[in-house]
Amino acid sequence: MTPASPFADPLTVFPPEIVLRILDFSPVSALASLTAASKAWHEFIDVTHQQAIYTSESKTRQPPGCSRDLSFLADARTFSRLFEETASWKDLCKRQTLLSRNWTDRQPMSQESVLQIGNDPVWRFRPDFKRRFFVSSSHAGGLNVTDMDTGRVLWRLPSTLDSNGDAVRPYAHLEYQDGMVVFDREGDAVEVWQADQGDAPRGEFRRIAVLNHRCQTRGFQLSYWTLCVVSNQGQGFVYDMTQRPPKLTTHLKIEKDAVGHLDQSEDVVIYSIGPAGYYAYDKASGDFLGVLQPSHCTDQYHILPPAASSPSATAALAGAARYGAAHRPFPPGAPRKDSLVPIDIVKGPLPSSEHMWEGPNEWGAGMLDGDLFVGFSRAGRVFVCSDWRKALRDQASLAANSSLIECKSDGSSFDLGGWLSVQNHRLMFEIQDRIYVVALDDSNRVQDTASHPPASYSLLTSSAPQLAVPTLGWRQSLPNLPGGVQHNDNPARIFPTKAIRVVSLAPDLPGVTSKSNSDTPSSTTADGLFDPESQDRPPADEIWRSQAGLLQLLSMLGDEFGEEEDDDELQAVVTGLGDGDAEWEDVDDDEDESGSDDEPDGQDPSPAHPSEHS
Questions:
Q1: What is the mean pLDDT of residues 19-26?
Q2: Which residues contact 25 (CB under 8 A, 6 or more apart)?
Q3: Three-class DSSP category at 381
Q4: β pairing state of 300-303 and 346-347
Q5: For the residues 470-490, what does the mean pLDDT come to?
Q6: Residues near 455 by Cβ (< 8 Å), separated by ≥ 6?
């Protein structure tokens, strides 16, 4: 038998089964090259065997055991609706590949949107991509449910008692899971409200329970349809939220002086005890399981902030102002490559010359994601434990399974515990005026930049950093809000506020990423300028109500803006790097939102020191 020529076309040498098996191990880039190599390869891959090739787990990510069709995409909810109207398995492969490629780029393409909710700065918010609304509380009190696509307030609870006796206190912490919202009230109690009750309109919630505690509650966390509540007086509470009313299943005796941060897995709840580290307990039995003490960690890395400030959202918004912007609640800016700045993770401790914090190292926000646990401290240290169950065994196991990342910090952004988000082998946290997004390897371990790990990057917390304010808002007249609440007209002026900011890494696919705002009437011409003949044309003073317009207006006002600032109205931005496409949130994988563990849950902070996250 004559051996085949090394240059022979595999399609003419091997049976289709062997070729398909080879292609199963070939990267997507190789498929693209082969389809362009010849008509025969194009026919083989994109016509005859397209279904078999692109349904392979090596080509498209899909839930385990799903049917060999695209029906599972009905649950793939994202802010940008990236996976809607996916036409084929090849189309899905393209979208997933472009998304993954953008995430691994050292300087990825991104788009930003900013949503101002009324005139009060946002304190906490949670996105619901299935129902496409945001649930948020504010500094001034009240709770709002806001349409994700139009920015319209669908429903709200007031800050002062209404005719039903309902109100939401200022600085209320809230937790959310699939139509259930929990927020704290005065008197060491939490309220539980549920959407989709009876004939309730979309976005309307109805109260189903008030859970009272005879001790000072400091925080609570909702996931796995379980609510965990913590007191600084040595008590913890675990509720089954599938029951009506919710049922207390475990009353835990825990370490005293819990600071309010907690997170849970299906079977374990972990509390932050400040300088003492993180204490773990079994949710069913209440048994103490051990301590994660970051001071026992010996593997160290550090990150220095980027040397030059990035134009970030400022440049994007200024550009939008020059070319005009649609009159929408929060039109996305143009895709940019300079919003997310690459950072280097360097092996070894932070140089002594960069240390700014000399006080005790308090541990605040902590989050779980599978086997991964991450904690954040006032000194700017991030504790990364790749297998927290093993680390609980003893000090040696903790050292073998954990690392510390040190960042330059003076502790000022930790006033209420800092904030943190953890999901899909990535961490996101805020230090000083920057957000850091750090990629781990597939085993959730820290790697220095020299090891060529996935890309890590940073962005500014403020959408207008040159003005030293978080986000620029426009004092609005808010007539006829849901609930019959009327707001009188206020003098029109610009003010600093906290808003919901979405940073999306979704690939720019025509007709897909722009769809999130497609249902909003536009009052612009094809070139982006306001159309004077449009029936939807806003009043002249409303043209400045977009972030882009505000930037342009401020460039005209110059230094006069300083006279308009309110000292008591915000020090930090609420940043939702929560695009489902951006792989963040308390849900699943890269199709969902931005997750967070913020300041001490349930704590009533002083308005003089607000600190926040999305």
A1: 94
A2: 58
A3: strand
A4: antiparallel
A5: 61
A6: 103, 104, 105, 106, 107, 108, 342, 439
pLDDT range class, residue 528, cuts 50, 70, 90: very low
Q: What is the pLDDT of residues 298-307, one digit of tens each?
A: 999 999 988 7
Strand 471-474 to 494-497 pairing: antiparallel
* Mean pLDDT, rounded, for 441-449: 93
Q: For 408-439, how does the pLDDT look when each residue is reduced to its tens digit (9 = 90+)?
A: 998 887 877 778 999 999 999 999 888 999 99
What's the pLDDT at 521?
Answer: 43
In the chain, what's the furthest Cα-to-Cα distance?
A: 92
Host domain of residue 9 = 1-60
Q: How far is residue 498's CA from residue 462's CA, in Å, rounded to a whole number?
A: 9
232 occurs within a structural domain: no
Domain count, the chain: 2
Query: Angle at which helices 312-323 and 547-557 pack, to 10 degrees?
Result: 90
Q: Alpha-carbon distance 595 to 393, whole Å?
A: 28
Rounded Cα–Cα distance for residues 343 and 436 (Å): 8
CB 565 within 8 A of CB 496: yes
Rounded Cα distance, 401 and 379, in Å:
21
Mean pLDDT within 473-492: 59
Residues 30, 52: contact at Cβ < 8 Å? no
What count of other Cβ atoms lies within 10 Å of the Cβ of residue 499?
26
CA distance 75 to 365: 30
* Residue 527 clears pLDDT 60, i.e. is over it: no
Contact 96, 128 (CB under 8 A): no
Domain contains 528: no
Residue 568 has pLDDT above 80, yes or no: no
- For residue 379, give the nearest of 344, 350, 419, 408 by alpha carbon: 408
Domain boundary among 33, 60, 87: 60
pLDDT(482) > 70: no
Structure tokens that stand for 350 in this block: 């932070």
DSSP SS3 for 546: coil
Pick from 2-6, 28-32, 66-70, 148-152: least confident = 2-6
The verdict on residue 12 lying in a domain is yes
DSSP string of 341-378?
A: EE---EESPPPGGG----S---EEEEEEETTEEEEEET
Domain boundary among 212, 240, 259: 212
Q: Is residue 568 part of a domain?
A: no
- Secondary structure tally for the chain: helices H, strands E: 10, 32
Q: What count of other Cβ atoms lies within 10 Å of the Cβ of residue 57?
A: 9
Please state, in angstroms and rounded to a whole number, the distance separating the CA atoms of residues 193 and 587. Answer: 20
Q: How confident is the model at residue 322 (pLDDT cuts 50, 70, 90)?
A: very low
Per-residue CA distances from 147 to 72, 427, 520 (Å)? 25, 28, 11
Tell me the CATH number at 189: 2.40.10.480
Q: Mind giving me the DSSP string for 77-131?
A: --SS-TTTT--SHHHHHHHHHHHHHHHHSSS--BEEEEE--TTS-EEEEEEETTT
Name the 3-class secondary structure at 403: strand
Rg of the chain on CA atoms, in Å: 25
Q: What's the pTM?
A: 0.81
Closest CA to 321 of 593, 18, 552: 552
Structure tokens at 189: 């109690």
Q: For position 467, what pLDDT does the model report?
A: 55
What the block records as the tokens of 202 is: 């979309």
